[in-house]
Amino acid sequence: MDAVQTGGKSPSPKKFLGTGLVIALIALVLDQVVKILVERNMRLGESIEVIPGFFNIHYILNPGAAFSIGEDFTIVFALLQAAVAIFVIYLLARRVWVRSWAIALGSLLGGVLGNLGDRIFREPAFGFGHVVDMFSVTHFAIFNVADSFIVCSMIVVAYMLIRGRNLDGSIGDAPVKKSSDDVDTDSKE
After folding, report:
1. Considering the entire predicted model, what is its pTM?
2. 186 classed as catalytic
3. What confidence score (pLDDT) does residue 176 get?
4. Residue 1 in domain
């Protein structure tokens, strides 16, 4: 349970930076291990039926974003992913005071770094690399572990935002501080 929920003293945000980075590392390693296993054991374009008519492992290289959109803008996606990674690290280091946000943002960071690593280090060139995708659900996109971490983390982020859960663990809007003019006006009434 978070310190804000228990009424206890809030821990240092550095504690949650560590939590977020560990989650990110787990997501990144899991993503890369699955990609390596697919590359070593399958031919490009090969498909293995897992659940007939519903789910396959289908090895493709994706130069674009979701649904292979923007195939000519791979470097733009790499730059955007780098910016997101930097911003998430900033949030984890400076703004996150509760475990729930650390886990959600760590998951997002790990997923972003998984796909960014593909774009930086894979063929055809630095910054233009193709992302390895392998999970194929019938009538849906082909995606990877990193994509799953990104989507799941964003669902949790959206839920926390809708519920009003702030990065510091408080619920709702922060209290509005009164200016000296407001105090004078209040005392005259």
Report:
1. 0.82
2. no
3. 57
4. no
